[in-house]
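Suppose you are handed a protein chain with no further information: no name, no annotation, nothing but its sequence. What can you learn? This example shows the usual starting point.
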Amino acid sequence: MNSGFVATWLARSINPWTHAANTCATAAPWLATKHFYATTTSSSSTSGSQKAAKVDKASVILNATASGATNPLLLDLLKSLLNNYKKQTPDAIKIEELMVAEKIVPNAAAIENDHIAFRTFNDPALGIDSIEQVFVPLGYKKRDYLNFEDKKLNAYWYSPPSEDLPRVFVSEIRVQDLSLAAQSIIHKHIPSNIPSPKKSTMSLEDRVKALKENKMGMSQIAWPKVERKEYKVLAEESEYAAWVLLHGHKINHFTIALQNLPAGYNTCTQFNQWLKDRDFVLNTAGGEVKTSHDGLLMQSATIAARVPYTFNCGTTVPVPYAYVEFAERLPLPEFLNSVFTDKQQHGGRKWARHMLREGFEVDNANLIFESTYMQKKTK
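A reasonable first move is to predict its three-dimensional structure. Written in structure tokens, the prediction is:
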């Protein structure tokens, strides 16, 4: 049985800030009036026949009932992660509803989730290992390493135990490559009593629970509230690091796979136009469509909506959170002329995953990261 997926989703030493903007009371107007690259999108055009279909939010569009022996613990984890993501990402709900209403897909369960993604710090208590030590015991396999030199990131992706489950992409910022001021802010908020993920004695069930509840690594410790000035100092140097400081291990996007959609919607260019016609705002860093060097992987994304975040001084300010990504994977050369007579074997899809370009591309992902940036960095 196919699985359906939720499509229903900042050092002072470099650029000093004014003293006024460094205080909690006076920084609120600064953040509220500053031109953000990551702005919320306009409401979709949903009049007449385009009016969005009603969706059962309680079931949250993740019919995570994958086939075979997929661990129920994994299905529950994915459902919980995507539910929490959906609650703060209105574009995801709007896009899904419109796809169903306009009969691009028969129902939400027919939307294929290409991958989900996590961000973290490479601190010994956190890092890629803290996510890996949840997903690998649940059947995922560690795949390729990616290095993002300019953003100071490491990343790995993981393939799922079943083709109807999403890939997992995990990145971490190399804290030691940041300024001393940025390192100090980050380390201040990571408790010293969190064990290394690989040395943790926490059960798999408790690891899943910790990730579902967005705790810090292999612990039941919540990510702390931060000071406004810390956020601004960090974001000026690395918006990625600032994002992690606020949101921790929440997923930052889910990805709609395009290649098996009907003609007219099954390419990034076509789907982007459909989105723009309905007033969604796209990430234009490096162009709307980011294309791999081999030409077989095209990706695009919306700009992250801002969500309210309450700093430890009690002031609430909108900050960038999550976005929706779109991926078009083309068939590998050996499958170009393949014709499938048994679509049931491939879950009703024209292309099964093993026939398509796999993995990720550094240049593509480098630009997609900027979907959560407050100011546009790459033209």
